[in-house]
Task: inverse folding
């Protein structure tokens, strides 16, 4: 009986999903650098699906473009709920993540370009712009109640805006061709979803089925399909009542467990499949490595906090409730966990340069580890200092 209680507490804990994710990262790195590495990569490259529907993709593509759309759906639902009835319901609070995300994209890109503008690596300026939303939220969740909920919501909103920005960068600068017919069909589906919301349709099935088509059309348009999750989330109806459970809250509740304990661990296992080589370490102190590490670790920290400070000084925005600038520094560091989205942009930036890809992957991994550890420590220490001040 006691064992079942412990398991229940484990799975209900917001920290446990972060611990599980880190374990999956370590396990994936072990597999990738063992005799099982090639077999695991072959499994990830294995094609699944229906060719006649143009839906035959590798296992890794199904995970990154399919399962992660569900993750973005959950995060989008949480952001919408906070916009309607929570921490982001005021303009001052809602605007801060937007300004922070802009700073967190512009400054890293400038730092990278300062190192690489006249080199063969110049096309990779988009690499340090991205934030890995899954890993950054996993790390901050490990701090539990030591970090105010408003700060976690700020990071989630910031990461979503950041990733939408990265998706736009990919679509405009790194996508070889946009299929406009599929994009127009996607916009048509969004219009239908908005109309359903306007007509106060409450049954989730009427949103989820068009949402599947939205994912399909976006995926074939050339734009990263995970954006479909966010677009769908913002059309799901909700309310400001604490007594009546809305369709949004029902869906959000049903997605928490599978996303935290299934989708995110699978995502970590497949995307940390990085085999180390001498080329990777050689490139760590090259202009490519320095640009990526400088952009992700220092660029994110400076850009997010500088643009946030400007927005607050101009009285456009305000700090998240019960938070401090020390904690904002911690969040700025956590946003430097670029990881999978940065790796994705690196693969697009250096399509025919395998050595460049390997160097970029290692630099992204090192930068993300530095950002994760330093961000966690800053947030942990700042919460301790605030507790001492209160006493």
Result:
């Amino acid at each position: 009986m006691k064992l079942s209680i412990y398991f229940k507490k484990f799975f209900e804990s917001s920290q446990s999903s972060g611990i599980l994710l880190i374990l999956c990262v370590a396990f994936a790195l072990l597999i990738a650098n063992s005799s099982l590495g090639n077999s695991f990569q072959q499994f990830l490259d294995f094609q699944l699906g229906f060719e006649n529907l143009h839906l035959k993709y590798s296992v890794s593509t199904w995970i990154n473009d399919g399962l992660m759309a569900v993750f973005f759906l959950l995060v989008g639902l949480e952001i919408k709920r906070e916009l309607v009835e929570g921490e982001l319901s005021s303009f001052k609070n809602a605007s801060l993540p937007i300004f922070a995300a802009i700073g967190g994209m512009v400054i890293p890109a400038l730092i990278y370009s300062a190192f690489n503008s006249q080199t063969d690596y110049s096309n990779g300026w988009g690499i340090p712009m991205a934030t890995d939303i899954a890993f950054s939220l996993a790390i901050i969740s490990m701090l539990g109640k030591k970090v105010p909920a408003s700060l976690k919501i700020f990071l989630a909103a910031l990461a979503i805006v950041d990733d939408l920005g990265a998706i736009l960068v990919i679509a405009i600068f790194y996508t070889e061709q946009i299929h406009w017919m599929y994009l127009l069909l996607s916009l048509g589906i969004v219009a239908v979803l908005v109309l359903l919301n306007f007509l106060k349709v409450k049954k989730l099935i009427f949103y989820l089925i068009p949402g599947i088509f939205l994912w399909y059309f976006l995926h074939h348009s050339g734009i990263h399909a995970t954006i479909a999750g966010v677009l769908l989330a913002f059309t799901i109806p909700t309310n400001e009542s604490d007594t009546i459970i809305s369709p949004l809250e029902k869906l959000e509740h049903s997605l928490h467990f599978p996303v935290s304990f299934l989708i995110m661990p699978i995502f970590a296992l497949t995307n940390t499949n990085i085999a180390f080589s001498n080329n990777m370490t050689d490139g760590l102190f090259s202009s490519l490595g320095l640009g990526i590490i400088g952009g992700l670790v220092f660029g994110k920290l400076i850009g997010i906090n500088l643009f946030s400070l400007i927005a607050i000084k101009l009285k456009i925005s305000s700090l998240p409730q019960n938070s401090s600038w020390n904690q904002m520094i911690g969040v700025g560091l956590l946003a430097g966990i670029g990881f999978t989205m940065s790796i994705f942009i690196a693969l697009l930036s250096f399509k025919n340069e395998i050595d460049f890809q390997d160097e970029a992957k290692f630099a992204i991994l090192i930068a993300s580890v530095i950002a994760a550890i330093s961000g966690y420590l800053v947030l942990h220490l700042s919460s301790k200092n605030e507790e001492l001040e209160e006493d």
